[in-house]
Each structure stands twice: as structure tokens, then as C-alpha cells.
Design brief:
The protein is α/β, with parallel strands linked by helices and 324 residues long. It contains eleven helices and 14 strands. It binds nicotinamide-adenine-dinucleotide (NAD).
């Protein structure tokens, strides 16, 4: 890929993927697009276009104008938001992906599309969820994600389009806020620990889900798109895994840095039901074997790094002993 267009670039992933793509391929060749203005984290650098990618004509025009040969398609409605407005989630998650694949077919672009742990359902083996397994999700978000995986596979087998994708676990990051997913607690808990010393969690204490620190997810996305296509047997929807977290385990890691930290629970039945339908852990053997995937951050190193960056972001003093 020489010239890249990113949809949904103002979100939690885009705010970090766009700078990573710009430093890998060049500032001017990566255009960020979103319904929104660029987030402050992008610092006003590099090209940006306001774009609703459910509008097929506007998307095609942007791809042509930018002469893109690669599309990272991030625009989506996430799990909890999707349950609040299923028709909108269907329109955006299916409609925009179809538009992306169609313009990519005509213009011969490579396409990266994230799927999610939400593409699994209660019938999937939960610990670990295999790469190829039963997928009967019970949420609108999950339905659109599994359909998206299939659609991307279809465009590869039917048209030879270079489609690739990952099933991101819940993503933990400090740059941009999360966009309404079920794993958002694992981000908010850090802010509340530093600012208030306590956090009220909407998932139950022992709810285990697969999570990942954003730098690992960004690196995985770039590495997959750079991988030798001859080695890829799966292409779309690779399981990747790093951290298996429960709210209690995360609170324990935080307490080692913020000893007074307290967590309490006020379970939200909608998000708890979603979380209970997802796997506790993903088997990422296929990603390891086919393109050499390895997570770098564990719970300790992720917690250290998150707290260090958030203290700077929130204007709080560095922790005692930091900087050695
Ligand atoms: N964040 C996670 O924990 C996580 C986990 C698994 C998968 N994913 C997937 O990763 C991708 C990126 O997620 P994210 O966390 O950055 O989401 P986000 O909600 O933070 O960002 C999505 C962006 O898409 C934009 N958008 C929505 N509708 C649009 C439209 N019609 N046209 C253009 N832009 C539109 C929004 O303005 C937003 O900036 C999504 O496909 C998501 O399903 C995310």
C-alpha cells in the first residue's frame, strides 16, 4: 500500500492507528476520514476529510481523489451503542462495509477491517475460543461483525480482493476515549482510579474477557497488512489475544500503584448479558503461525504504561519512584 484512506479515523483506534500509519508510510499519504473533525490527538497534521461512509458516492469520490490503494475501515457502531439503536448499527456496520468493499473492488484497494470478540456467541467454546468455530452471536453488533467477516472472505474468494482482518479483543488505551463498547470499563477504571481513587464497575467482578493494550493492537494491524499473502490461510478475522482480565484482576493490578483504590459493582444487565455471551479467551495460534503475531504487553507492563501516560495527560504528578 502506498496511499491509504482510514474511515472512522477519529475514534479510539483511529486516533492511534493514523499516526502509526503516517510514521510507517509518510504523513501526506494517509488521509483520515470520519463524520467528526480530527481528534486533538492527531495534532492537526496530515490530510483529513469529513466523510459519512454509508454514502457510497462520497466514499468512492474520496478514494479516487486521494488515489488510495489501501483502506483501513474503522467506522462502526460498537456493542453497547448498537444495542441502543440496532437499525443504525445495521446501517453503519453493514452498509459502510459493503460500500468500502465495492469501491475497493472497482479501484483495486487492499482492505483492513476489524472484527471483534463479539463475533462469537454463547454457543462458542469460551476458553479458549478457537479460530474456526461456531459463531452465533446474540447482539446486533456481533451479527454485523460475523456477517462482515464473511463478506470480506467473499470479496477475496470471488474477486481476489486483498481483504484482511483481526478480531480485536477489548482495547485499553489512554489517547482517545472508547466509543461505547462492553469493555470500556477497562479504560474508565484507570481515569477514575487516578482522579477519584474509586470506580463503580458495570460488569460483575469475575467477568473474564480478552483484552489488549492499544499499541499491540495497532502493531498487529500493520503487521497483518504487511504479511506475506502466500502464508495467510485465514485472511479475515484472525483471533489475537494478550490479556485475560476480570474487573477484580485489573483492580488488583491498579492497587499496586494506587493502594487506596476501591472498586464497587453496579452491574448493568444489558452490558453484562453481552459480556456473558463472549469468550473468556481467544486461541490466537493461527495468527502466530501464519504471520508471526506475538503480544508484547502483559497486565503489569500495560498498567505501568497506562498510568504513566494518564498522569501526564491529566496533569497529575508522576508516581514516586517513576522515571528510574
Ligand atoms: N475499541 C474496542 O475495544 C474494539 C474492540 C473490538 C473491535 N473494535 C472494532 O474496531 C473498529 C474501530 O473501533 P473504535 O474503538 O475506534 O470505535 P469508536 O466508536 O471509538 O470509533 C468509530 C468511529 O467511527 C465513526 N463513524 C461512525 N459512523 C460513521 C459513518 N457513517 N461514517 C464515518 N465515520 C463514522 C465515529 O464518528 C467514530 O469516530 C470498529 O470496527 C470496532 O468494531 C473495537
Amino acid at each position: 500500500m502506498k496511499r491509504i484512506l482510514v474511515t472512522g479515523a477519529a475514534g479510539q483506534v483511529g486516533a492511534e492507528l493514523v499516526p502509526a500509519l503516517r510514521s510507517a508510510y509518510g504523513e501526506d499519504v494517509v488521509v483520515g476520514t470520519d463524520l467528526r473533525e480530527p481528534p486533538p490527538e492527531l495534532g492537526g497534521s496530515g490530510p483529513w476529510t469529513r466523510l459519512d461512509c454509508t454514502d457510497a458516492a462520497a466514499l468512492a469520490e474520496a478514494v479516487r481523489r486521494h488515489r488510495a490503494d489501501g483502506i483501513y475501515h474503522l467506522a462502526a457502531i460498537l456493542s453497547a451503542t448498537a444495542e441502543a439503536d440496532p437499525p443504525k448499527a445495521y446501517r453503519v456496520n453493514m452498509g459502510a462495509l459493503f460500500n468500502v468493499l465495492e469501491v475497493a473492488r472497482v479501484e483495486r484497494c487492499a482492505v483492513f477491517t476489524p472484527s471483534s470478540i463479539a463475533a462469537f456467541g454463547a454457543g462458542t467454546p469460551a476458553d479458549p475460543a478457537p479460530q474456526d468455530t461456531l459463531q452465533r452471536p446474540s447482539t446486533m453488533y456481533g451479527v454485523t461483525k460475523v456477517a462482515g467477516e464473511l463478506l470480506c472472505d467473499y470479496y477475496f474468494t470471488r474477486y481476489g480482493l486483498d481483504t484482511r482482518g483481526l478480531r480485536y479483543p477489548g482495547l485499553i488505551s489512554y489517547v482517545a476515549p472508547p466509543g461505547g463498547g462492553t469493555t470500556d470499563y477497562a479504560v474508565q477504571i484507570f481515569y477514575d482510579a487516578l482522579e477519584h481513587g474509586r470506580y463503580r464497575c458495570f460488569l460483575a467482578a469475575e467477568t473474564q474477557l480478552d483484552m489488549m493494550y492499544m499499541p499491540d493492537a495497532i502493531r498487529a494491524s500493520l503487521e497483518l497488512m504487511e504479511a506475506d499473502p502466500a502464508r495467510l490461510r485465514h485472511r479475515n478475522a484472525f483471533n489475537i489475544a494478550a490479556l485475560q482480565l476480570t474487573p477484580e484482576r485489573l483492580a488488583g493490578a491498579l492497587r499496586r500503584h494506587v493502594p487506596e483504590f476501591r472498586i464497587e459493582y453496579e452491574v448493568d444487565p444489558v452490558r453484562q448479558r453481552i459480556a456473558d455471551s463472549w469468550p473468556r479467551r481467544l486461541d490466537d495460534t493461527a495468527a502466530r503461525e501464519e504471520w508471526g503475531w506475538r503480544a508484547r504487553y502483559d497486565l503489569e507492563s500495560m498498567t505501568d504504561d497506562m498510568l504513566r501516560h494518564l498522569r501526564v495527560k491529566l496533569g497529575l504528578p508522576a508516581a514516586a519512584g517513576a522515571g528510574h
